[in-house]
Structures are given as structure tokens and as C-alpha cells.
Task: structure prediction
Amino acid sequence: MEKALLLIIMLRLLSGSIELTAAMFMMKYNDLEKAFYINTLLALVGPIILVVTTGLALTGLTEKISITRMVCLFSGIILILYSLRSN
Result:
């Protein structure tokens, strides 16, 4: 198994574990305001995992993918992150 693939799998497992842990905290506290706060913190985790896993994948695919496609992929990620921030 490729090193980049293993790292991506581990990051996705970590991300899923964080999501499940957050859901358990929401159930434990049973408070809408605290659930909203926890959900807000989760909104930071998703984009970070997206950028890191995409970067790892592109690093692993450097010989197989053209520079134009890499630029397009990173541009797409930047647009996704920008759309999350805009009103």
C-alpha cells in the first residue's frame, strides 16, 4: 500500500472519529447552544482534512498527473473554502 494512501485513510478515520465524538458530546450535553458550538468547531475540521488529504493525494500522484490538473484541483479547493466563508 502506498504511503500517501495510508495517510489519507488514517486522516479520514481520524476525521470520522472526531465527528462521532462530537455527536456523542452533543448527546451528553443535550443542549442546543452547546451542540451549535460543537458543530461550529467541526466546521473547521472538515476543510482542513479536505486540504491535507488532497495535498497528500496530489503528492502521491505527481508523476501521473499534469501540472494543469493540479492547478485546477487546488483552484477548486480554494473556491470551496471561499464559498464557505462568503455570505
About this structure: The CA atoms of residues 12 and 23 lie 17 Å apart.
